[in-house]
Amino acid sequence: MSKGPEIYDFNTLFLQDEYQELKERKRAFEAPCTAAEVEEAEAYSKSEEYKEKNFARNSLVVNPAKACQPLGAVMAALGFEKTLPFLHGSQGCTAYFRSHLSRHFKEPVPAVSSSMTEDGAVFGGMRNLIEGLENSMALYKPEMIAVSTTCMAEVIGDDLNAFIENARQEGAIGREVPVPYANTPSFVGSHITGYDAMLKSILSYLSTREGIPAATEGDVTKLNLMLGFEPYTGNFGELRRIMAAFGGGYTFLGDHSGNFDSPAKGEYSYYYGGTKLADVPKAASALGTLSLQKYAVKKTLDYIGESWGQPVISMPTPIGIKATDRLLQAISELTGLPVPEALTEERGKVVDALTDSHNYLHGKRVAMAGDPDLLLGLIGFCLEVGMEPVHIVCTNGDKEFQEEAERLLASSPYGEEATVHLGRDLWHMRSLMIGEPVDLAIGSSHLKYAAKDAGIPLVRIGFPIFDRHHMHRYPIVGYQGTLNVLTLIVNTVLQQLDDQAPEYGLDLVR
Ligand code: SF4
Questions:
Q1: Whose CA is nearest to atom 6 of ligand 1?
Q2: Any idea where the Nitrogenase/oxidoreductase component domain is (predicted)?
Q3: Is the bond leading into 338 cis (omega within 30 degrees of zero)?
């Protein structure tokens, strides 16, 4: 069998003569700046004067470390069995959410749109929504449709509640089909706000509708687990493993790990896994709810605490020994089960691994960007191993997050140099990393350009990760997740050491 024609990758393809000639002709036609002018502008963009101007801007955002609300709503919807995410608004937005999630998880993402265009914007989108619901039932046969909105529907003020009721009265969708909805305007909030709004809507809808099954004894001895806007499917697996070690029953309130990590068996299904709809009302009678995110599910946690009347414990992403200890204590507290010996053993092994690596990490200065819960987890981890967070950029954090982050930083001498930048973007981060250098950056793929300009490596943790594969399959929470985070960071540092080593310093053993 022949191997076929030679395939050039992106880096070498455009070095071929024909592309180089094309590039020259384009350059001559466009009469661009000279190489010297480009160099001068680049040097200026790295100056202190430019940094001041960059931080003075207030009407422009460049490369924010966040996505828009409905993207989170799509993820929340995909956490439930046979649920179709339905975006009321424009098709282009829906294509963006699908491609964004697909590029991170490397999985197809089912989501439909009411496909509003100019006439919908002028006359309202009710017909689009009604026909869209009817078509969705006919084509995709979901058990639930979770409706959220894009900016267009929000700007014209479409009334989802009335439109869905009209759709039911017209017979476009049966009364037995749950259609929870959330308003997710993207001119405020971010993907985590949208996730929160949709999750709360689904939980409240399913737990209050008529004819729900009564909870059994088995339900009241279970624990509800929430992972929130979770970019790591591996974190669900890790929680399953931890709960199996405890031997306690549990229900995930939103489990999108199946939809974002389904097997290739030769046949495609729109739906894979997810929390069973019938389990939600039973979850209202559970022992309590434990959430591994705090800032991403604020309203949902308030709802559960107030309406389900059960104990609620939430914590930022538990990365590191202390944070995982807190996680296990919370499970123990809510279930009454002791922390299993196997996990204590595992803890010891991870402490050992941290000790092995800490001399390479001690004193390393770090810049990090991401969602509030993840940043708190990463700050805690850095302080545990003696790394020094310096620049912390949180585009979608609030004052409460800032205060919690500052308290955490103040608890350790390694946090002394840190500044938490709320509402800033990754272009601000570029100025920060160039003006006040650090050793490495931690964040999503979007941070790679700023890290490159600053001449430092990027450890990819967070969302989205487009340019590395399978990272989301490995957990970052719990002792095992802590070991994974440690491995990622320390090996990046060791690679950097090798890359920069003089001839006498390329040591075999590190
Ligand atoms: S910000 Fe608004 S218009 Fe843009 S993709 Fe998100 S929902 Fe659509």
A1: 68
A2: 68-493
A3: no
183 lines ligand 1 (CB under 6 A): no
CB 151 near ligand 1, within 6 Å: yes
Residue that finishes a domain, picked among 340, 370, 396: 340
| Ligand 1 atom nearest residue 97's Cα | 5
Q: Is 151 tagged catalytic?
A: yes
Count of CA atoms in the C-beta half-sphere (13 A) of 119: 5
Tokens representing 360 are: 């390479």
- Which is it for the CA torsion 208, 212, 216, 218, positive or negative? negative
Same-domain check for residues 316 and 354: no
Whether 318 lines ligand 1, by a CB cut-off of 6 Å, is no
Q: Which atom of ligand 1 sits closest to the CA of residue 67?
A: 6
Number of H helices and number of E strands within the chain? 22, 13
Report the nearest atom of ligand 1 relative to the CA of 152.
3
Range of the domain at 137: 69-200
- Separation of 301 CA from ligand 1 center, angstroms? 26
Would you write out the chain's pLDDT as a tens digit for each of its 510 residues?
A: 677 888 888 888 999 999 999 999 998 898 888 889 999 999 999 999 999 999 999 989 999 999 999 999 999 999 999 999 999 999 999 999 999 999 999 999 999 999 999 888 888 999 999 999 999 999 999 999 999 999 999 999 999 999 999 999 999 999 999 999 999 999 999 999 999 999 999 999 999 987 777 778 778 899 999 999 999 999 999 999 999 999 999 999 999 999 999 999 999 889 999 999 999 999 999 999 999 999 999 999 999 999 999 999 999 999 999 999 999 999 999 999 999 999 999 999 999 999 999 999 999 999 999 999 999 999 999 999 999 999 999 999 999 999 999 999 999 999 999 999 999 999 999 999 999 999 999 999 999 999 999 999 999 999 999 999 999 999 999 999 999 999 999 999 999 999 999 999 999 999
Do residues 102 and 71 lie in contact, with contact meaning Cβ atoms separated by under 8 Å? no
The helix or strand, by DSSP H or E, that contains position 419, with its residue range, turns out to be strand 419-422
| DSSP 8-class letter at 317 | -
Domain end residue (candidates: 340, 367, 392): 340
Task: Compute CA distances 30 → 18, 34, 35, 41, 198, whole Å.
Answer: 18, 11, 14, 18, 47
Say if residue 425 is in the same domain as residue 481. yes
Catalytic position from the list 33, 38, 62, 155: 155
- Is the CB–ligand 1 distance for residue 93 below 6 Å? yes
For residue 152, how far is its CA from the centre of ligand 1 (angstroms)? 8
Establish whether 155 is a catalytic residue: yes
Whether residue 61 has its Cβ less than 6 Å from ligand 1: no
